[in-house]
Write a structure and sequence with these properties.
The protein is mainly α. It has eleven helices and no strands. The longest helix has 30 residues. The termini are far apart.
Length: about 260
């Protein structure tokens, strides 16, 4: 009887393992955790995929081209085309970031490419904000699942754009006012907390975003409680030119009652 019980357990383990393996094999390319998905280095394969693959494949191809850095500089034209004209916002955002990543930093062409990448991302941000505001203004009583799917998709792209701009760093300094407006307008409040990615983006841009430092400090002072305070404080320190090591230590808050 015990042997039969052990046999049944073994069968269950095999079935569960098989199910997990099947699920992993069906996961859309590009959705794997970054730590487990190998970066493709065959530029010809990536360019073909970027042009004619499915949405997830095109997004992954754009990201992989960027991950190859300046060795993929010959892909600039294809990435710019994808960043401006792909039918998927997710692909356009990934391609715009990769356009900057493959450009290098030592030439006038690289500077022009960085300017183009930031301009594309800012245009994407304006488009997503227009969509979000229209959806937000609609009568909630008439909203259906498609309405909320579209709203969350807009917020997802806004988050992705902010993250891309923060990754670009100082070259994205011109986008700082647009990022600050996301906080000031409280975009996403009640649906998704965009404060951490936007604060992190401003921090990534650093002193090049110093023009919005006074506004960010006022925003910080207007926030009650400790939620997101560390992310905002780190951004303030970065804009002021402090290194992360010099950032103010997190406020531990009030001592808990011990009674």
């Amino acid at each position: 009887m015990i042997a039969g019980f052990r046999y049944a357990i073994a069968i269950c383990v095999i079935l569960i393992a098989s199910s997990c393996s099947a699920e992993m094999s069906e996961r859309p390319p590009g959705n794997e955790p970054a730590a487990t998905r190998a970066i493709e280095t065959d530029l010809a394969v990536l360019l073909r995929t970027l042009e004619s693959g499915g949405v997830a494949d095109r997004r992954a191809a754009a990201a992989d081209l960027g991950a190859n850095g300046p060795t993929a500089a010959t892909a600039r034209s294809s990435l710019e085309t994808a960043a401006r004209a792909d039918s998927s916002a997710a692909v356009r955002v990934a391609a715009a970031l990769s356009l900057w990543q493959v450009s290098g930093t030592a030439t006038d062409t690289a500077t022009d490419t960085a300017t183009d990448a930031v301009a594309i991302l800012r245009a994407e941000l304006d488009q997503e904000l227009t969509s979000y505001r229209a959806l937000q203004a609609a009568d909630p009583a008439a909203a259906d699942d498609a309405h909320f799917d579209a709203l969350f998709e807009a917020l997802t792209q806004i988050r992705a754009i902010a993250t891309a701009l923060g990754t670009i760093g100082a070259d994205a300094g011109s986008a700082a006012p647009a990022l600050m407006s996301l906080l000031a307008e409280r975009i996403g409040e009640g649906y998704e907390d965009l404060v951490p990615p936007v604060a992190n983006a401003l921090g990534g841009i650093g002193p090049a975003a110093a023009a919005v430092l006074p506004e960010l400090e006022r925003y910080r002072a207007s926030q009650p409680g400790r939620q997101n305070a560390d992310a905002i404080d780190a951004a303030i320190a970065s804009l002021a030119g402090a290194s992360r090591a010099e950032s103010p230590a997190p406020d531990p808050g009030p001592l808990p009652d011990v009674d």
